[in-house]
Structure formats: C-alpha cells, structure tokens
Design a protein that fits this description.
The protein has 362 residues and is an alpha/beta fold. It contains 13 helices and 8 strands.
Length: 362
C-alpha cells in the first residue's frame, strides 16, 4: 500500500514540471519583450534629440605623430588656423578627444585647438609598459605640448576630470616655466584629493572613511567586464554616475559609447591611479588666470572639490557652478563651457599684456 501511494503521487509532481517550465519561459519572453521595447524607446528618444546631429558631426583635425617617453603612440589632432592662439584640451577617464566635439566645433574658426587621447583611450595605443599613473599622464602632456605648441607661444590649457588632474600634475613639475608656456588654465569637473570619500555615487554612511576608501579603490580599479554595446541598463547607469536627470538622450548615448569603448584593463588601471591622487598642493604652481567649473549635480567630483581648489589658487578668474549639470559639463552645458574657454583665452591675453609679454596672435 505504501508503494502504491508513492507511485500515485509521481504523476502529479511530473505534471507540475511543464507548468513551471512554461511559467519560466513566459517570464523570460516577457522580460525580453520589455527589454526590446525599452531599447527601441531609447533609440527613438535619441534620434529625436536636436543635439544628436552636432554630436555625430565628424571632426576633421590634422594628425600629429607623437610618441610618449616610453614609446606609447598617442593620437593627437590639431584643429583650426595654424596662426591662431592655441588651446589644448585634455579629456578625462574612459573618454576620448571627441569628448570636446562641441567646443571644437564652436571654437575652431578662431583658435588653434590641440586635442589628444590619453594613453590607452580612444585611438592612442595602450601603455607600452602598463603604466597609467598620473605621472605617466603628466609626462604625456609635456610630450604633446612640445610637439604641438611653438616655443614662443603661450597656450591655454583646459582639462576635464582626469585631464584637469593631469594639468595640475604637469604644473607642479614645470612650475618654473609655467608662465612662459601657459597663459591661462581651465579645471573642469574635477577633484585633486579625497575623491572617493567625497563621491556621491555610493553613499555609505557609517562604514568609516578607511573602509570607504578601500571599497572605492576596488570599484575604480575593477576589471569586471561591462557591455560592449549600449543597453537600457548601461545607459541608465551611465546617466546616474556621470550625468544627471536633465541630460538629453543623445548626450547620454554619446557618453555611454565612449565609456563602453574603453578597454577593460585601461579603465581599471587608470581608475586605480585616479583613486589615489593627492594633487591639491600642485595648485601652488599655477599663477595664471584659472577658471574652475563644476556641475551642481556632479556625483563623481561634487562642488566641494571646486570650492577647495578656488581657495588654494592664486588667480581665480571664475568659479562656475552649473545647475542641472552632472560630471560631463562640456557635453551637458556646451555653450556655457565654450564661453568659459573663450573667457580664459581673453584673460590670458590681458595677463600677457600686463607682464609685458607679447599677446597671443589673433
């Protein structure tokens, strides 16, 4: 009788399996349909965004062959008239020189613009020795300046995020000649110390600054894979981390493409170096007009960094805090960012006249 009861229950259990499998298939199908619908809705919003044609515009810069001191080939482009004042643009972590596309398009008729890809980013080769330290970035900037800026000319240096850190590191190493080579500096959406504990990406109250620092370093230096193509999830993660809710769909998609295209090891090794920077004292070497610009909704380098930097600089031209702007200010607020760069160039000319040096050609 016991055996009979046991056998009598088996058909009921076996009959439940197809039901469970059918339910799982239905859930997967529904999830796939929702994913596809979200992707298509995102694409429609991106295609309808008035900013998209400007972001998609092809840049036509003149290539300059540059190799870093360790042999790493750097992708360098020059835009605009050769006899115009020079502005050097340095992008940030996981980006490429196209990050500055809206500023290049707006300024290339009146300025000579130099832009390059950081080592391992964009079209630049991976570091030949695996070095992605801030010192390596600093030395790369020096190599680019020597290759692209005439010896008798003073350039405007503008950096975003890691690009701004690179400029400060370079200034600290070349302070004795800075005023002979640089007329003005722009430090945009950046921080120079305490980057992890001040970040608003993953607020972690109660765990203590030391643990937070260690977790942040692990996160920034992580080699975990990320999607190679845009997805509904990756676009929302990029928006949350690097932009803000007001960023337009095309700006989010443009930023997402750059971030996803950065090689995993470059992203991790550079991020690890960024997590440990201590550069605030390097501001002592910058004694030319300097603009500090930040988005009020910047979660990566919030305005507290901008306020700390302006307190340490000797000649602040402007402190610009942009409402409804995240970390990617040149993309989120292109007109205001371009205006700030123009003002830097003008201030550099005025400073040159004050000290008796010839102003930049116009």
């Amino acid at each position: 009788m016991k055996r009979s009861k046991s056998r009598g229950r088996r058909p009921a259990v076996l009959g439940a399996r197809p039901i469970v499998r059918g339910a799982l298939v239905s859930v997967v199908a529904a999830s796939g349909a929702a994913w596809t619908a979200a992707y298509r809705a995102d694409r429609r919003r991106i295609d309808a965004d008035p900013a998209k044609p400007h972001l998609d515009a092809e840049l036509h810069g003149r290539p300059v062959a540059v190799r870093a001191g360790d042999g790493t080939a750097l992708r360098v482009r020059v835009f605009g008239p050769e006899d115009a004042p020079t502005i050097v643009l340095v992008h940030g972590w996981t980006c490429a020189l196209e990050f500055w596309t809206l500023q290049i398009q707006a300024l290339q008729d009146e300025f000579r613009i130099v832009a390059y890809d950081l080592r391992g980013h964009g079209g630049s080769a991976p570091s030949s020795g695996g070095d992605y330290s801030i010192d390596a970035q600093r030395d790369d900037l020096e190599t680019v300046l020597r290759a692209t800026v005439p010896e008798d000319e003073r350039a405007v240096l503008v950096g975003h995020s890691l690009g701004a850190m690179t400029i400060v590191a370079w200034a600290a190493d070349h302070g004795e000649s800075l005023t002979d080579r640089v007329s003005a500096v722009g430090l945009f959406s950046t921080g120079l110390d305490d980057l992890i504990t001040s970040s608003l990406i993953l607020p972690a109250p109660g765990i203590g600054p030391r643990v937070q620092q260690e977790l942040g370093q692990l996160l920034l230096g992580s080699k975990l894979p990320i999607p190679k193509r845009a997805t509904p999830i990756s676009s929302r993660v990029v928006r949350y981390v690097a932009l803000c809710g007001a960023a337009s769909p095309a700006v989010v998609a443009f930023s997402e493409r750059m971030v996803l295209s950065c090689p995993r090891d470059v992203r991790a090794n550079t991020g690890s170096a960024v997590s440990r920077v201590e550069l605030l004292e390097g501001l002592d070497a910058i004694d030319v007009p300097t603009t500090v610009l930040v988005g009020r909704d910047d979660r990566l380098t919030p305005p507290v960094h901008a306020e700390r930097m302006t307190g340490a600089l000797s000649e602040v031209l402007e402190l610009i805090e942009l409402p409804d702007v995240g970390h990617m200010a040149p993309l989120e607020a292109p007109e205001r960012t371009t205006q700030a760069i123009r003002a830097l160039a003008a201030a550099g000319d005025r400073a040159a006249v004050r000290v008796g040096a010839p102003p930049a050609a116009s």
